[in-house]
Amino acid sequence: MPRENLLIGAGLPIRPSFESLKRRSAASDNAVMPKGKKAAARTNRLLGALETASRKRIDAHLEPITLKLGAVVCEAGGLLKHAYFPQGNVLSLLTVLENGSAIETANIGREGAFGLFAAMYSRVSFNRCLVQLEGAMVRCPIELLQSEFEHSEQVRDLFVSYSETLLSQVQQTVACNAMHTTEERMCRWLLMMHDRADGEALPYTHEFLSHMLGTNRKSVTLAALSMQSAGLISYRRGRIQVLDRPGLEEAACECYAIVKERFDAFLTPPLTAVQGDTKGRSKAT
């Protein structure tokens, strides 16, 4: 059951606005850092699942990059020259509406990549992609991934299965945004970020969270105070620390567990998309 709603963080300093963060360009060549390719690639689980021959060809072309929180990797409708493989950072996929508003529909950590649809079928990104959590990441030229996709059955199976698994996250997020409370959705979102941040404090303001969750800042503030009052999190100067992980999981909706189960199953050999546990949900016949 959702915990009672109270108020948190009133009057705390505000970090730079989401709009100013959004304007930072992330795909420029000056983001490229000195290469440390092969060791770095092993921290991305999707790259680690590639067959040996493809992995060797791809390793030689990986470029490590570091981008700041809120940096835009690609705008919706933008042309992709690279696919991006998080190693410690998290990328957020946002659906952008005509009036400029946007809402997150999926996020990608070291289990996956952004740009595989472009590598398989086209170079145009349907979503805006931005950095949601800072950390290491490598990128690979789209042309090379297209070649591997065309010539390797294992790479085709891996990319298509991953894309189907990512689509399941998008579908679950759509349902979550429509049906669950702000507090439940915020618990889900913080759990996903906590998984990727390895227990570190999360650098998010209420304003940033309101944009990610597609809700107003007041609702986020109310939900955050409820969670802090219950001892689930602490909030100080734009940083959120998870204090009670089991309690946060209990307060979250079922969407966190469903998505986590799907990705855990995908990343367990054989690496193929799986149905997962659909108890309580309708099953296909």
Your description of this structure?
This protein is an alpha+beta fold and 285 residues long. It folds into two domains: 19-173, Jelly Rolls (Sandwich), CATH 2.60.120; 181-252, Orthogonal Bundle (Arc Repressor Mutant, subunit A). It contains twelve helices and nine strands. It has helices at residues 18-22, 37-41, 45-48, 52-59, 116-120, 142-151, 153-179, 182-196, 206-213, 217-229, 245-251, 255-266, and strands at residues 63-66, 72-74, 82-86, 90-96, 102-108, 128-133, 136-141, 233-236, 239-242. The strands form three sheets. Strands 2-6-4-5 form a four-stranded antiparallel β-sheet. Strands 1-7-3 form a three-stranded antiparallel β-sheet. A two-stranded antiparallel ribbon has the order 8-9. Strand 8 (233-236) and strand 9 form a beta hairpin. The longest helix is centred in the middle third of the chain and has 27 residues, at 153-179. The two termini are 32 Å apart. Residues 1-42, 273-278 and 280-285 have low confidence and may be disordered.
Chart the SSEs and their pairings.
Elements: H1 18-22, H2 37-41, H3 45-48, H4 52-59, E1 63-66, E2 72-74, E3 82-86, E4 90-96, E5 102-108, H5 116-120, E6 128-133, E7 136-141, H6 142-151, H7 153-179, H8 182-196, H9 206-213, H10 217-229, E8 233-236, E9 239-242, H11 245-251, H12 255-266
Antiparallel strand pairs: 1-7, 2-6, 3-7, 4-5, 4-6, 8-9
Helix pairs in contact: 6-7, 7-12, 8-10, 8-11, 9-10
